[in-house]
Write a structure and sequence with these properties.
The complex is a heterodimer of chains A (246) and B (613). Chain A has 246 residues and is an alpha+beta fold. Chain A is built from nine helices and seven strands; from the N terminus they run ββαβββββαααααααα. Chain A is 37% helix and 15% strand. Chain B is α/β, with parallel strands linked by helices and 613 residues long. In chain B, the strands form six sheets. In chain B, strands 1, 2, 7, 8, 9, 10 and 17 form a seven-stranded mixed sheet that branches. Classes of the chains: A alpha+beta (246), B alpha/beta (613).
Amino acid sequence: MARLLKFNIFRYNPQDENSTPHMQEFILEETANMTLFIALNRLREEQDPSLIFDFCCRAGICGSCAMVVNGRPGLACQTKTADLPQDITLLPLPVYKLIGDISVDTGVWFREMYQKTESWVHTKKVFDPSAVEERMDNAVAEQIYELERCVECGCCVAACGTARMRDDFMGAAALNRVARFVVDPRDERTDKEYFEIIGNDNGIFGCMGLLACEDVCPKNLPLQNQLGFLRRKMGITAIKNIFSRK
Amino acid sequence: MQTFYSDLLVIGAGLSGERIAVESAAAGFSVIVLSIVPARRSHSSAAQGGMQAALGNCAMGKGDSPDVHFLDTVKGSDWGCDQEVARLFADTAPIEMRRLAHWGVPWNRVVPGKSFYFKGGEKFEKYEEPEKEGLITARSFGGTAKWRTCYTSDGTGHAVMCTMDNRCAELGIDVRDRTEAIALIHDGERCLGAIVRCLRTGELSAYLAKATAICTGGFGRIYKATTNAVICDGGGHSIAMDTGVVPLGNPEAIQFHPTGIVPTDILVTEGCRGDGGTLLDVNQERFMNIYEPDKAELASRDVVSRWMTHHMRQGKGVKSPYGEHLWLDIRHLGDKHISTKLREVDEICKHFLGIDPRTQLIPVRPTQHYTMSGIRTNRDGAAYGLAGLFSAGEASCWDMHGFNRLGGNSLAETVVAGGIVGKKIAEFLQGTDVSFPTALVRQAVQQQEERIRDLIEGKNGGENVYKVREAMQDALMDGCFVFRNGKDLEACVRTLQEVYERSGRVSLKSNGKGANHELAAALKIRGQVKLALCIAAAALARTESRGSHTREDFPERNDRDWLSRTLAYWPEGKDMPELKYEPASTAWDIPPGDRGYGGGTIIPAEKLPGKAD
């Protein structure tokens, strides 16, 4: 006989005047190879159609379904119930605005981040459709891609001590984004210009080095290395700034 | 209720939608882009392989040109494509790849010198020329004469999607996530925008625009087993069909992939079989070598899918709580091969199945993968039937894929078509002015408010939306999947007609407030069943086998009678689609011939349709 799983799920619909925040219990029989994607959809379709949660690719690629599973932020689609105890508690990610139940608004947070970090290649060159492409070293291309693998699930920010205390902290995802452009030779921004964006306590100097961002990242991005790399670079830039002041 | 105005309204923020937005915004027009999810979560980002473009930089791509790419594409389509569109695509693709490089895509580049590659399990050597160092390189894909697929590691779609979304941010394009268009505003002749439901609050708004572009991707989710994301549910196609005047092109052209994992139908790469993996049945015995002694597991996607389905019908499938499946065995490839060459498969097995493919078998079954079908447009991306309505990407039937699209051509199409159609939309906007009659808008809003009220109050009946959806999915899986025949298709159409009738009696069990998913599902179920009926009816009518459309009772490709494209219309008040036909192509640069794979016989055409003498 398969296990009977007990789900404790956070419930609150801010658009419903009769709704109050509470935990609700559901019972579901476990099947082979069950993931939280399968379980939650079965709960919604068979038991409570008002349940609000997010999935998109259901394959660990898009980052939609981040939630706090038994105390730890992670992607629900690639969480197998077989790896969890019989009691499973699901909570929405902290830091982000709640949409309802275990769905949060990561989209707005990340769009603001693009604007803050000016998340695009800054170049004065104009594209010439008749010319051959500019050359790039393959190792550099691969290095850029390694940092661009972020799926914006928000787990790193939800697990970050500084972000939990301060709304204005940019978090590992934003700092990683900046690092991606720092290593890209096509981006003509100088260290001084990057310093304007992240050279403060909201940015690179706010990190307390608790390492949780890297621990929970479902894509295993080297977030702490990037933070270290940027902190050194920005530290040097800060010193240069002092000496260049007239 | 709020009303928003823009020159262009783009529905869908995947690669083709954002590419159109970028092109029109750069030409100075105001653009609003709607997306069900944050743009970067669009299904474009899930594509791993790459984008085809004849750059000819790498050693194995030497001598490649748009002409060769064009030839491969036409052959791949089984002569079902519009050859002028395929030509336009092949010619533009290299420029578009370079433009993406300029915008920030970290394409893999040519590394000079000697290196090795594998083909059919055998090791070969190649030499990359020093003068090509640093140019965009390419990898090999099925159905192509040259190595032509540009890529960034195993995350091409993701990397290009990031770059495109960055470009939107740079241009200040207004991308609104968690919004879903639930109806088009139109007067039967001209499209004027859409009624949109906010997926945060549930509120309705009117979005008025001079031009509207539907770029919502494929509709694989109407099948039970699909590799598609849950958002690929045909919402964009439904609202176009609901107008009664916009047809769906080639609804019967649906592509299936042999190895989706069970239960969640996530794709494991064709590389597993390419490198020597085998397919096993319930007795853990090989079977592909019985059906295809020559190629066995390495036959083309469609062929393998067909035999797998056949074998399960013979009672050789493995029973599971999620339905029947077969096994993929890569154990004999060994640890080193699996952890380097098939790293991604290893991870999928670990994360989603909790198994180790070195010692355990992978449960797989054929799975819906791609819709060549879509909103029928002309070469400019303008939809048939409504002025001011456009479409691009998988959502459209622009028609460069015909009845079977080649790997790497779909992802390339998103940006190539997006660029071309975006430019055409800018031209259209330049020369067009419209007035928005308030009565028309008010009527459109009221209609949607009424629909929602009826669903919440249970006015239409007591059907459960998820049960109705399941009945539709089962009908398609039974009658309109990999194999088709007259008897099963007739039964499928009959069942779907009943399901269509049930879809009109759906009501909500929940209160429908806020970001309610049940309401979103209920609002689109009727449109989904319409799509399903279009597929089944068109497949029943097409008495031949072409590309992915396989009729057991009509195994020949019949160029004499079927060198045509299906147009499925759904006139208002009807309960079945109306099928019309047009020539597959007006230009025949490459007259119909043998694809060179897949076998089968051909009934030749006496005269090429649509060709001016």
